[in-house]
Design a protein that fits this description.
single chain, 287 residues, alpha/beta, Rossmann fold, Alpha-Beta Plaits, 2 domains, nine-stranded mixed β-sheet, elongated
């Protein structure tokens, strides 16, 4: 089973919930797909065993073969290629905007002259390891500074999914392309939110996204005793199951600052997350 943990906005406690849920399961694999700012390792403290550079294919134009027909430009869905045709004695040119390229390879496939080959452009690193004293494997990606395209790295992190284990994916915050890449293929998704106007607004976006992707989901409300009732009202109206409510606690905040998982702060949290793990494994979430 693949369980993704997501949130419409940052700062809701998504990683806190993901880590505690993983620690409440047996034979689990943790994937930190928040490659722009991975921090689950600060709580799980894995022993990293492998490190591999990750890259995407980038088109390289052979201008001896190129006729500047513009076919590569036309098939590029991301506007990563510009073609300037020649005129008279002026030679044409092809511009490749590497930071817009998603490495899909369409330009090379559709080039009628075979003038496009691929070269690899490194964008980050993928590290794998194990969590001490746990039957848990660990994978995370780290996007290089200055890189803007995280979905290709997220997809490469997910290539390490072990179907023999329960997989927990800590997705990036938000509802844009990186989140889609992270949660795609999940059996269910857990949305972590907070009872504030911003939390409600972004939860609504996340709910719409998961409905469009047809991924079952449920909600965890963090700091449930602060803010307003908007999130609870939405869940009641839309019949979205609230699978856990976590009240505000200074002890939780202090533990977070020390890198202590939620389940390591008090026995009650461990029981709550063990119960949550059981409910998720029964797939008691919204269709």
């Amino acid at each position: 089973m693949i369980i993704s943990i997501a949130s419409g906005k940052g700062g809701t406690g998504k990683t806190t919930v993901a880590v505690s849920l993983a620690l409440s399961l047996s034979r689990v694999q943790f994937l930190d797909a928040d490659v722009e700012e991975p921090n689950a390792h600060l709580f799980l403290k894995p022993h990293i065993k492998t490190q591999k550079r990750a890259g995407i294919p980038l088109p390289r134009i052979d201008e001896q073969l190129c006729t500047y027909c513009g076919r590569c430009r036309d098939v590029c869905a991301y506007n990563a290629i510009a073609v300037v045709p020649g005129s008279g004695d002026r030679k044409g040119s092809v511009l490749v905007f590497s930071h817009l390229c998603h490495g899909c390879g369409a330009c090379g496939i559709f080039c009628p002259k075979g003038a496009i080959q691929e070269m690899t452009r490194e964008i980050g690193v993928i590290e794998t390891g194990t969590v001490p004293d746990r039957d848990m494997t660990f994978v995370h990606g780290r996007l290089d500074p200055g890189e803007m395209m995280s979905p290709p790295l997220i997809r490469q992190v997910k290539e390490h999914i072990d179907p023999a284990r329960t997989v927990i994916i800590d997705a990036p915050p938000g509802t844009s392309c990186p989140v889609v890449a992270a949660v795609r293929g999940s059996d269910l998704c857990l949305l972590v939110t907070e009872p504030t106007p911003f939390g409600l607004h972004d939860l609504m976006l996340a709910v719409d996204l998961l409905k469009e992707m047809r991924i079952p989901f449920g909600v965890v409300i963090n700091r449930c005793d602060m803010g307003d009732a908007g999130v609870e009202d939405l869940c009641r109206k839309e019949r979205i199951p609230v699978l856990m409510r976590i009240p505000f606690s200074r002890a939780v905040a202090e533990g977070y600052a020390r890198g202590v998982p939620l389940v390591g702060i008090a026995p009650s949290y461990r029981r709550d997350f063990e119960e949550l793990a059981g409910r998720l494994q029964q797939r008691g979430v919204a269709p």
